[in-house]
Amino acid sequence: MSHTVVGVFDTSNEAQTALQQLVSSGFSRDNIDIAPNTNAGADEHDKKDDSIGNFFRNLFGSGDHSERYSNYARTGAIVTVHVRSAADAEKAADILDEHGAVNLDERATGQGTGAVAADRGRPETSATDTTIPVVEEEMQVGKQEVETGGVRLRSRIIERPIEEHLRLREEHVRVERNPVNRPATPGDMNAFKEGSVEMTEHAEEPVVRKEARVVEEINLGKDVEEHDENIKGTVRKTDVEVDRLDEDELRRRRTEGDRPGNV
What we know:
Elements: E1 3-9, H1 12-24, E2 32-35, H2 42-60, H3 64-75, E3 77-83, H4 86-98, H5 104-108, E4 116-119, H6 186-190, H7 247-256
Antiparallel strand pairs: 1-3, 1-4, 2-3
């Protein structure tokens, strides 16, 4: 929805100053209208005067409100800003207020100034009631489980050289021949026959056996500890202070030319 912000000024110079400030604040010049145009001729001023009444009747509808704005605008100047958001409309209204936009409703009663912001296609709404939402934050504390560390066990096979000293025994058959010259005995005669005698050699050799033995057990487990912790934080809340405005304060504002806000 588009929004239209209208500022009525006592002089064209004030309107031109407000227009320049709007452009400096980022508003497109193509979306800003000013009437009457200080560079226009007399005939063009008459045409502007005729269109002013139609403009306010289209904006606010027929009635005293639109006629009051139309009559005053014919002697002053009007700045109209077309925007697409309520935030931009409020920003434009603030700029117009700061540079002397007239609030005709309050001017009729001798009070302040201000720009008019209206949504296109909607009638003007009353601004006599203002609502300030009171917002209060609440802090909710809960728990969640996160990983803080851990242990990984990895097993692998490693080899290491082992050296042992071992003494081995070997047998060797020895044959000795000794020449003799003696008479044969009966025993010699009993052995005097064909036959064979054998003697076997023996030797020791190393024998290696391996035996696997469990020498250690490693257990992987968890110990659970609990502790208390105080959670601190801040929450925000809207604090609304109500101050009564007395007649002296209002009279001082009128004297200083302060503008209290938008219509």
